[in-house]
Amino acid sequence: MLNYNIPIRPRRNRRSHALxxxxxxxxxxxxxxxxxxxxxxxxNQKIEVKSMPNIYRFSVDLLAKECQELWDLGxxxxxxxxxxxxSIKDKLATESTNPDGLYQRAIKAVKxxxxxxxVITDVAMDPYSSDGHDGYVEEGEIINDKTLPILADMAVxxxxxxxxxxAPSDMMDGRVEVIRxxxxxxxxxxxxxxSYSAKYAxxxxxxxxxxxxxxPKSGDKKxxxxxxxxxxxxxxxxxxxxxxxxxMVMVKxxxxxxxxxxxxxxxxxxxxxxxxxxxxxxxxxxxxxxxxLDYERVVQETLLSFKRxxxxxxLTYHAKEFAxxxxxx
Length: 329
Ligand code: PBG
What we know:
The chain is an alpha/beta fold. The protein has a single domain, classed as TIM Barrel, CATH 3.20.20.70. The chain has 11 helices and 12 strands. The strands form 2 sheets. An 8-stranded parallel β-barrel has the order 1-4-5-8-9-10-11-12, surrounded by 8 helices. A two-stranded antiparallel sheet has the order 6-7. The N and C termini lie far apart (about 45 Å). Bound molecules: ligand PBG.
């Protein structure tokens, strides 16, 4: 029975660092983090993304070195994105399945340099598409079912190069199933699928599109990416991806969608990832550059919010600096 004469003092559990550590409910560690990386052609290239301070586009040789550095810092997973010259882009994203293309060479180089590093690869047409869309475009429309076999071929090419986990970020209907079937048919039954299940049509992807020079040439992505107003629809997307054979599901972006992360974490039987996207990274950096925020503290607080919301996995451009801060502690 509650005795109302005894004053309730929640502050008692906050009295010291030791006590606060003891009652702490959530913690971020390097085990939770995936570092997204951009790769470009050439040699000895390390070019900063203008809208993302301290984030670079690496040539394959330096990418391998960067992965070794990340591994030594305790980061055990990367998510790779290629930035290609417009001259090799076409309507069918032909370059995406080239076994000697930039992306496949990059995957091989990372697996060779750091064999245990988990290499997550991106499946979507936009880095290779002359239309700049994630799907196949015909008269201004994104044609779902013509895109599916292209995505499946892309996934198999990446698995052949050594990818551990395939991450379809395209938001076409039915892609998890066709990718699972194609991987299994090609003998890659152990290659997993991390599905971008609830990916919203977000303005927070701006700096990423600068990094890859992959903005849509016309129109927007609203007929395939989700309406930021919706949450029930996110649950539906996750349910379908689970049924289609995904191994992990994702919510993207992160900070403005923590309610979605929470809702998905409550219903998903699969591990839940969140993508703390480029615009979120750039916002904190811009504020810090102006001296308006304490950068390390806001980053720590942001990453923690994802764990508190229920995410198991966090894709974040802060992964490397977070790992460095942890090491210095
Ligand atoms: C495209 C893709 C995007 C991101 C990852 N894959 C951008 C888009 O959908 O236009 C965004 C990542 C970020 O902003 O950090 N397939």
